[in-house]
Amino acid sequence: MSPEPPSVRAAKNFSATFGRAPRWLVAAPGRVNLIGEHTDYNDGFVLPMAIERRTVIAAAPHGQRRITLRSATTKGEAIIDLTRPVERGEPAWSNYARGVLAGFQRLGATFDGFDALIDSDVPLGGGLSSSAALEVATATLLEAITGRVLDPVEKALLCQRAEHEFAGVPCGIMDQFTSVMAKEGHLLLLDCRSRTTELVPLRDPSIAVLIINTNVHHELAGGEYARRRAQCEAAASALHVPSLRDATLDLLYEARAHMEPVAFRRARHVITEIERTRQAARAIRAGDWPATGQLMDASHASLRDDFEVSCAELDLVVELAQAIGESGGIIGCRMTGGGFGGCAVSLVRVEAIPQITTQIAAAYRKKTGLEPTIFSSRPAGGARVLS
């Protein structure tokens, strides 16, 4: 029997928790990035899609000057005082929502207190943007409550700012833009400099995206993300360009003798990954699956060797996928997300999904003693008000 979707669970749990039915029900999806990793904060291109997993918030007003946020996922609760500007607070997960609330306050939006119950089937810490899904769901709820509907770019940037200022994560724009703007049946080619988007159809019903969660998340991830960002900025400075988006391989190799080896490798990944992302969008439009697969495989090798953000478990998943290969229904596979654990993403033939899932799960379990979580998704739509 299939588990209840989070929208059904959220409405039921809200009624059970707060003793009345919710007035509003909103949802925002997680995302997976097919290719274009660690390019977003370098003004490059990314090619994500929303997944068929989402964060749902059920809410109802109570007329007092406070907000109660209850999480069905973490079992925690936050009480937020509305008699003064919203500030950071505990529990830590509530800061993703607090930052959005503060952003709406800065816009001059007014709202009374409400109770809210948050439910989600986006895996936490898996590189599928559970944090952006919570931020965008919160913003969508506040649009419904206040009647103030933001421009999609403004909405995504408000949510990104919340993550920077309240959660302390210097993320790029990909996660929030995808959760806000994704369209069903399409990938989103996002130019992170101009903030323009282009829909790339993934219409072939025989092709799907398979997400393989290693269910490991190594502790160094947070600090290493900030370090990689600083290394990219240092590399751009050494190349005398505003960002690595403006660099070329020729320029990089000319400057190699004057660069730290680590900075050279970081820049080489970003420069080649930006080009791979553009090529992948063209290949997918043309239905050129062999070329798409080669680009995904090359992306993983670059992330593993030049950017050094993979880990043994992610490398194992990719090796298992590559061993199955196109004859077994796998077009390409790579790590996705910030790295050091989380998920790999694979483009696969739909009819082969059961066999691929069984084969990878068994081999991964045998090698690591861990149980992976594997699910497929078609490109989903962005955030919306459900009721």
Largest sheet: 8 strands, mixed
Strand content: 15-25%
- Approximate helicity band: 40-55%
**Span from first to last CA?**
26 Å
CATH architecture of the domain at 6-201 and 381-385: 2-Layer Sandwich
Low-confidence stretches: none
State the CATH topology of the domain at 6-201 and 381-385: Ribosomal Protein S5, domain 2
Helix/strand order: HEEEEHEHHHEEEHHHHHEEHEE
Instruction: Report the total helices.
Output: 11
Total beta-strand segments: 12
The outline comes out as globular
Description:
- By secondary structure, this protein is α+β, with helices and mostly antiparallel strands.
- The protein has a domain at 6-201 and 381-385: Ribosomal Protein S5, domain 2 (2-Layer Sandwich), CATH 3.30.230.
- It has eleven helices and twelve strands.
- α2 packs across α4.
- The longest helix has 25 residues, at 261-285.
- It starts with 5 loop residues before the first helix and ends with a strand.
- The mean pLDDT is 94.
